[in-house]
Amino acid sequence: MTRPSLAWKLYIAAFYIFLFAPLLVVAIFAFNASPFPSPPWKGLTLEWFIGSGETFGKPGVLVDPIWLDSIANSFKVAAPVALLAVAVGTVNAWVLERAEFSGKALLSMMMLWPLVIPGVVLGISILAFFSRVANGLEEWLQTDLDFLRPGLPLVILGQLSFILTISTLIIAARLRKFDRSLEEAAFDLGASRARVLRTITLPFLSPALIGAGLVALLMSFENFNTTLMLVGSEPPLPITMYGQMREGATPAINAVSLLLMLGVGGIASIFALTAKPER
Amino acid sequence: MSTRPGLRLTLFLLLAPAVLWLGLLIVLPHVEILILSFSERVAPRIYVFGFGNYLEFFTEPLYWRTFARTAIMSILVTALTLVLAFPIALYIARVAQGRLKAMLLLLCLLPFWVSELVRTLGWMMLLRETGVVSHGLQAIGLTGERIEFLYNDGAVILGLVYGGLLFMIVPLANALESLEPAVVEAGFDLGGSRWIVLRRIVVPHAMPGIVAGSIIVFMLTVGNFATPVLLGGKNGLWFTEQIYAQFITRFNWPQGAAFGMLLLLLSSAIVWAGLRLTGQSLGTTLKQA
């Protein structure tokens, strides 16, 4: 079993080619000087990144307002999602690891639920529920409550519904490894609760907090299923990409994909660098 | 812990975010679509209780056929993913050593950090009539005309298997990691062939990983939207698309809610059956992944 046969090795090689073929194709054709994202190869160009649209009729990603607005919308969603995921995740982790109360087992089981609910169902259920709340409140208050209608605030809530599970799990796993005698020592030395939290507990948790924040950022940026159901007139990046892919896109979509891959690669390397010292 | 009022207040405050999250974003919304799925429109803006939306599902062939198709194809995709991923996971866990092992695992992870839509775009560019594969086949003279590989069941299955691989490889490799080499050697020493050792020793040992990976891949596949719609085109016919159509295109929310409940039921039923058949619990299964 430890000496792999040639067939097995060939299979492994073929598998990795299969894994990377679609990504390579996307990246390479971002530089193709053609109005269509397909062969033949017509020469190297940066037009699909920075072109003004004079050559091919459509501008490059970094000057096209459609793409720039979508990227901005994605950040408008991802930033609050990541911040809230870390803040609420920390409190949840504390509840799971430190607090004792009846019903804790039920609560910790319920926190896993969002992971087994299909994203589309999460989306429609939140859409339907908040519409009912909006209808009721608007009648009562006699005013429009647009943030409860499809749009970026609802997308943020929809994404949080399952990203909170992930951030809670990541932070709770780290908190479980914490040696509580460190806190006790600090208390014995006369430190206040706030000070212990600030100088002992939070620094210990910080790799998990950063990790959970980055994972939340990434999941928010790439979420499609839940977002699709809750999106209003300001589409985040995946929704715009989906629309363009259905209509038949220009290589600008390859360019935006390549930028996304580079961004993800950047986040992944920060992740790898911050994760190392804890081992 | 004592029950002093201060501590009770602290506990209450710490619990508040979790209760708000699970209550407002999970429990109440699901109660809402459950109620919605049992309401029928009798006149504009007037709804009554009834099973009409579910009856509609069983009487309209397009709906239940799409549902059955989604379920069957998802099971097929899960099985295919398992078979394709097993040799890879075994290699990573048992054969590769040191840096090669870390690198192989990292290379598996990388494509899955990238958005699902980017990966699907890659497959569209490879498979479409004017795409890379068709072009390549013409260039080497295997075919004289363009071939359309996109917009059929094969393309949908390929895309879904590709999307599920990582979620199968990681739990499998984790489970295989703890397999004692001595046990495998004993199997060979006792005269077992490669096949018997694989079937009687390696696969049973990997069972927790197999269950965890299969459940995750099945859930992701059943709930997928972009891959079947983009790679399958009009022939994609995925159930999530029906939910989207009822909610967003036709604005028939009660019907869409009923479909949502059915999808949730299908997903939960298969997960539950998988766990029951193999005697695993959800918590430990999710931890495997």
From TrEMBL, chain A:
It is found in: Cell membrane. It comes from the Bacteria. GO terms for cellular component: plasma membrane. InterPro entries: Bact_Polyamine_Transport, MetI-like, MetI-like_sf. One of its GO terms (biological process) is transmembrane transport. Pfam families: BPD_transp_1. Residues 71-271 form the ABC transmembrane type-1 domain. The chain crosses the membrane at residues 12-31, 77-95, 107-131, 151-175, 196-221, 252-273. Keywords: Cell membrane, Membrane, Transmembrane, Transmembrane helix, Transport. Coiled coil: none annotated. It is a multi-pass membrane protein. Belongs to the binding-protein-dependent transport system permease family. CysTW subfamily. This is ABC transporter permease subunit. It comes from Microvirga makkahensis.
UniProtKB/TrEMBL annotation, chain B:
It is found in: Cell membrane. Residues 67-274 form the ABC transmembrane type-1 domain. It is a multi-pass membrane protein. Keywords: Cell membrane, Membrane, Transmembrane, Transmembrane helix, Transport. GO terms for cellular component: plasma membrane. Signal peptide: none annotated. The chain crosses the membrane at residues 12-31, 71-92, 104-126, 155-176, 197-220, 257-275. It holds the Pfam family BPD_transp_1. The keyword Nucleotide-binding does not apply. It comes from the Bacteria. PROSITE patterns: ABC_TM1. InterPro entries: MetI-like, MetI-like_sf. GO terms for biological process: transmembrane transport. Its main location: membrane. Coiled coil: none annotated. Belongs to the binding-protein-dependent transport system permease family. CysTW subfamily. This is ABC transporter permease subunit. The lineage of its organism: Bacteria, Pseudomonadati, Pseudomonadota, Alphaproteobacteria, Hyphomicrobiales.
